[in-house]
Write a structure and sequence with these properties.
Layout (H helix, E strand, L loop, with lengths): L1 E5 L5 H10 L4 E5 L5 H7 L3 E4 L25 E4 L1 H9 L3 E17 L15 E14 L5 E5 L7 E4 L4 E4 L11 H12 L8 H16 L4 E5 L3 H14 L3 E7 L7 H12 L4 E5 L1 H8 L5 H23 L4 E3 L4 H4 L22 H5 L2 E3 L7 H10 L4 H4 L20 H20 L8 E15 L2 E14 L7 E2 L4 H14 L3 E6 L13
Parallel strand pairs: 1-2, 1-3, 3-4, 4-9, 10-11, 10-13, 11-12, 13-14, 16-18
Antiparallel strand pairs: 5-6, 5-7, 7-8, 8-9, 15-16, 16-17
The structure holds xanthosine-5'-monophosphate.
Amino acid sequence: RVLIIDFGSQVTQLIARRVRESGVYSEIHPFNNISDEFLDEYAPKAVILSGGPASVHWDKAPSAPARVFDLGVPVLGICYGQQTMVNQLGGKVATSDHREFGRAFVDVIEDCALFTGTWAEGAREQVWMSHGDRVDALPDGFRVVGKSDGAPFAAIANDDKKFYAVQFHPEVVHTPHGAQLLKNFTHGVAGCSGDWTMNAYKDDAIEKIRKQVGDGKVICGLSGGVDSSVTAVLIHEAIGDQLTCVFVDHGFMRSGEADQVVTLFRDHYNIPLVHVDATDTFINAIEGEIDPETKRKTIGRLFIETFEEEAKKIGGADFLAQGTLYPDVIESVSFTGGPSVTIKSHHNVGGLPERMNMQLVEPLRELFKDEVRDLGRELGLPDSFVGRHPFPGPGLAIRIPGQPITREKLDILRKADAIYLEEIRNAGLYDAIWQAFAVLLPVRTVGVMGDGRTYDYACALRAVTSTDGMTADFFPYPPELLGRIANRIINEVNGINRVTYDFTSKPPGTIEWE
Ligand code: XMP
C-alpha cells in the first residue's frame, strides 16, 4: 500500500483515487498526525507528499516526518510536496515572481523512471500548475528531468534513493498523462503489483466484519440509497441473519421507491427487513412548515426517534451499521482554523450512534463513492440500483420550497419527478447526469388547456453534472427533450401547468433549492 501525506491541497483525494484506479491501495493521512511508530507499522511500499497552500518560508511551515526519507522506500513529492522535500533534503526554494496557475507545459529534458511509456525525451507535456514558490537549487543527488517556463525544476529525480518530485499536479485530469506518471511511480519505481481489486476488497471486508461482530447482532438503517444498500448486502453476506435492516419510510420518497427497497431486500436478498411506515408521523410534523433548516432538523430528530424505537423492539443488537464513506473520514488539514460557514445542515442520522450506545460497523469507510458502486456490482446489486443518483435524506420535503408542505403537493411533485426521470432514462442520459429532479414552485400561473383557463403550479427541472457534489454545472439538455418532458408533465400531472429549467451552477447556487 501507498501512504499519501496530506499538506492540505484541494486535490489530495484525487491522488488516492488515481493510485487506487491503478490497482494499488492507498490512504491519506495528515502531515501533522504521523508518528515514527505509525510509519514503521504502516510499512508503506511508497510515500507520496501532496500539494498544499503553505510556503516553506512560513514560520512553522509544515514538513514531512524526517523518517519518511529514511524508510528506504520511494518518495514522490507533488507541488508543495516537492518544495518541502527539496527544503528538507538541503536544496533551496524561492518565492517566485513568475507564478503559474492553470495550464502549463513541461519540456521533458531527460529520461526518467517516472516518464516511461508516454513522456518521451524532448516532448512537451501539458500539465496543470498551481504555485507561487518554486525550487531554485537541488539537493545533492538530484537531477532535473523536466522544466516549464515558470519552474526550471518542474520535475526532478534522485534515482539512487528513488526520490522523485514534480511541481505540477499529475493527479488532475488537466495533466492528461498524469495518471501514467503516477502509475510509473507506484508500479515501476515502487514495484506495487496492482492487484488490488474490488473482489479482493470484498473478501477482505467480509472477513473483517466477521471478526468484529463475532456472533453479535447488527442493525442497519436502509434509506434506499447506494451506500446503505451496499453496506447491508455486504454485512448480510458476512454474517447472514445476525443482521436486521430497518427501513424508516418517512413519506418523502420518490414514486415507487419504498416498494422497490422492500422487494429488493426482503424478496430478492432475503434479508430480514423491518419496514416502518412512519409517513403520517413525519408529514404531520412538518405539514405547514416552510423553513428549510427546521424541516431538516425535525425530520432528522424524528428519524432518530423512530429508528431507536424499532431497534428496541428488535432488541439485543450490539452493533449499528453505517454507510460512512472515505471522504467523510479523511481528517482534513486546516491552516486557518477558522470556522467554516454552514450552508445546509445535511442532517440525517448524525447523533444516532452516541445515543444508542452501540458499536459501529462501517465497512465502506475506506471507499470512495465510485468504489462503493463497484463493490455493489461485485455483490450482485442491479446496475439500475447501483447507478442511482444521490437523493437527500429529507427527500422531497426539501423540494417543495417556500410554501407549506401538504400531501397533495407531495403527490404532484412525485408524479412530475417520475415522468422527468423516465424521460431522461429513455433518452439514455441518466448516467451522464449526477443528479436530476423536479422542484415544485410556490407560484401558480395562468395557462390555457383546451378551451379552458388553468391556474396551477409551476415546476422547475434541475439536472447537474458533478464529481463530488461540491461544485456542479447545469446539464445542457437538447431543447427538444426539455420540450417533450414539459409537455408530458403538463398533460399528465394534474396541478402543474408550467415547467421551467434551472440553469444555475454551483457555486453560486446549490444543487438542491433549499
Ligand atoms: P447542495 O444542495 O448542498 O447539495 O448543493 C449537495 C449534495 O447534498 C445533497 N443534500 C443532502 N443530502 N441531507 C442529505 O443527505 C440533506 O439535508 C441534504 N441537502 C442536500 C444534495 O442532494 C446533493 O447531492
